[in-house]
Amino acid sequence: MTLPPLSAILDDYELLDSEERYRLLIDLGRDLEPMPAALKTEATKVRGCSASVWVYPTTLEDGRLHFLADSNAAITKGIVALVLSAVQDRSPAAIVATDIAGELAPFELSRQLSSNRTQGIPNMIALVQDTAKRLA
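^ thats the sequence. predicted structure below, dont judge the formating
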């Protein structure tokens, strides 16, 4: 399934209370395209996350990057979906130019979630950005 634009997610997110925000994140995670188990390796694992997170970049025919991702924790998987919503199916140059952390800032995830849940976000962002830089 195609992830909605980050701005559309934020519009919904801002209208919700804390518990509903958790549900929204879980639903976003459920909407991620399935990641084959064979791709869940040490090489695709994001370091520094409290839950296991895997991110695998692929290149579309026109050179845009498409990421497959998964997590063994529902909330964390939703956070991964947020990160990917900022960059999915964009050119490497566009991803490099994107301030992913800045685009996630309005969600105030550090206020909504425990530090354990958010500690791996910078590492997810770095992996996505580094992949895009290599291919730009």
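Strands lie at 53-59, 65-71.
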